[in-house]
Amino acid sequence: MKLRGILITLLLALAGIFAAVNWATLTTTLPVNLLIRRIDAPVGLVLLATVVAVALIGFLLSLLERADQLREIRTLERRLERTREKLDKQQARDMDDLKDAMRAWGESLEQRIDGRVERAEVTIQDAIDRAGEEDGRRFAELESRVTTVRNELAADVGEAEDTLRRMLAQAAGGALPHPSEGSQEDGGGEGNA
């Protein structure tokens, strides 16, 4: 309870107690000047009625003030609710805008990544193709070298056989057949090597 209400209640209680204790004095009739006219009335009751009237007027004024405050509070609450709704709608729009912006940024990022991945795939495929071509070229070179080495080895083996036969023929006194004759009898020695 507000201080004003407490004070008014306290004053009314004190006035009631004062009136009860001094009732005989308050009801004594005396001449009273009302500025317009003069009458005989109990002065105590007139003053008590005046105090009670002022207290009631103060109480009524405080009730009216409280009613105005409540009306103002309701008005402010309605304004606050409308403002809150506007803010919620604005926040929802902002969130939608943010989602759209994030989606657009994500799509842009995805396109850039896809482009880079495609370029990387093309680069890797080109490197694989070049490596395949290089491997094919190296394989052809290696095959050519192997063929050359095989031919050289066959020639060296043939020469070594000829040299060995000559040495054996010289050691045996010439009894061995000629190398070309021995090759035909063995099944073509050089061609098999």
Explain what you see.
Strands 1-2 form a two-stranded antiparallel sheet. It has helices spanning 3-21, 23-26, 43-172, 179-186, 189-192; strands at residues 29-33, 38-42. With 193 residues, the protein is mainly alpha-helical. The chain has a domain at 3-109. α1 (3-21) runs antiparallel to α3.
What value does the average pLDDT take? 83
Largest sheet: 2 strands, antiparallel
Class per helix and strand makeup: mainly alpha
How would you spell out the order of helices and strands? HHEEHHH
Number of strands: 2
Provide the spatial order of strands within the biggest beta sheet. Answer: 1-2
Topology of helices and strands:
Elements: H1 3-21, H2 23-26, E1 29-33, E2 38-42, H3 43-172, H4 179-186, H5 189-192
Antiparallel strand pairs: 1-2
